[in-house]
Design a protein that fits this description.
Layout: E1 5-11, H1 15-26, E2 33-40, H2 46-53, E3 58-62, H3 67-76, E4 83-88, E5 91-93, H4 99-107, E6 111-120, E7 123-127, E8 135-137, E9 143-145, E10 148-149, E11 152-153, E12 164-166, E13 173-177, H5 178-183, H6 196-206, E14 210-221, H7 232-249, H8 252-275, H9 279-298, H10 320-326, H11 332-336
Parallel strand pairs: 1-2, 1-4, 2-3, 6-14
Antiparallel strand pairs: 4-13, 5-14, 6-7, 6-13, 8-9, 10-11, 12-14
């Protein structure tokens, strides 16, 4: 019998996306699934729309907007399934998108999480920023992906069509074993939104599990639906949360030098943006550093346990900043296969 899968869509005032993309989710062909709408106190009528139009969808009403991490943590406590699919409301899926991922995860119990290939809705020949063909992390904690380096998204020419271990699976369409999700305490609610899935996948790997990309499954993501790119809040959360993630998960010997160096790189980026007329970005980065210091001083944080000899997959031991901005390498293959 097929294991039960719960497709859990976290919603906050996403009526227009639900109207557009929920029909594709309803058309999923997997034999044993349910759709759950976890709502972060929306006020746009989206709950009434779903209740009337799709009465088979289970609705979980949260009393306030708990963000991505808190919303999922609270909602998933009420969902009973072998696998969760964390799916953004701005994602279009195709029939048969669930089957290859579950088949892969069922063949290897050490796979804790997995993501499909993610293409751009509206331009399906291009990888989508949020996850592309699977996430990696570089020496200083900068996230990138098979098919996406910083803001450069590659054309999909089948170059990443093989199953592969990765560092992180995109939260826009993440398959995860329900038991492991709860065992690891879910996502860090302090993050609110942005990079909490990377932190979760890092902890998943430290616990001895692997994260995979399964490109036989394809989804199409709009991206930036809740907080558009360049939004001050989004910049703040990305920079603050990335530093928190490094402090939580790096071994002490690496934290001592990598975090100060990373802060220096952030400051260079901030000043570059200021001289380019992006004062909002500059301010957001400085606020992120202040927010990180506040977390260090006020949160009872303890680093994740660091098992000896644990090899992390999808970890690039060099700097993509150096490769991309200095040597003008734009594609994942150019960067990870470059020996210099």
């Amino acid at each position: 019998m097929n294991p039960k899968v719960a497709i859990v869509i976290l919603n906050w005032n996403g009526l227009n996306y639900l109207e557009k993309f929920l029909p594709s989710v309803m058309a999923s062909t997997y034999a044993n699934y349910e759709i759950v709408l976890a709502d972060n106190a929306s006020t746009d009528g989206s709950l009434a729309f779903v209740a009337q139009k799709y009465p088979g969808v289970v609705i979980i009403r949260l009393e306030q907007n708990f963000g991505f991490a808190g919303g999922y943590n609270k909602a998933l406590k009420q969902v009973d399934a072998a696998y969760y699919i964390l799916l953004n409301s701005d994602v279009e899926v195709v029939p048969g998108w669930i089957e290859p991922v579950i088949e892969l995860m069922e063949t290897d119990r050490q796979i804790g999480a997995c993501q499909p290939k993610m293409l751009t809705y509206g331009d399906p020949a291009v990888f989508e920023y949020a996850g592309a063909a699977g996430g990696w992390l570089d020496l200083f904690g900068y996230p990138f992906a098979r098919g996406r380096i910083f803001d450069y998204c590659e054309q999909d020419k089948g170059q990443y069509d093989s199953n592969a271990p990765i560092f992180w699976a995109s939260g826009a369409a993440m398959f995860v074993r329900s038991g492991l999700y709860h065992q690891l305490g879910g996502m860090d609610e302090y993050f609110f939104a942005h990079q909490e899935e990377i932190d979760f996948c890092w902890r998943l790997q430290l616990a001895g599990y692997t994260v995979m990309a399964c490109p036989a499954s394809v989804v199409y993501h709009v991206g930036g639906g809740t907080l558009p790119k360049g939004n001050e809040r989004k910049v703040f959360l990305n920079f603050r949360n990335n530093l928190i993630m490094l402090a939580k998960n790096l071994p002490l010997s690496q934290r001592a030098w990598k975090i100060p160096f990373r802060i220096m790189l952030d400051i260079i980026s901030a000043w570059k943006s200021l001289f380019g007329g992006e004062a909002t970005y500059f301010i957001a980065v400085l606020e992120a550093h202040a927010g990180f210091m506040k977390w260090l001083l006020t949160t009872n944080n303890r680093p994740s346990r660091q098992p000896k000899n644990r090899v992390l997959k999808g970890w690039y031991t060099k700097s993509i900043v150096w490769k991309h901005f200095i040597f003008r390498k734009n594609t994942f293959s150019e960067i990870v296969e470059d020996k210099y």
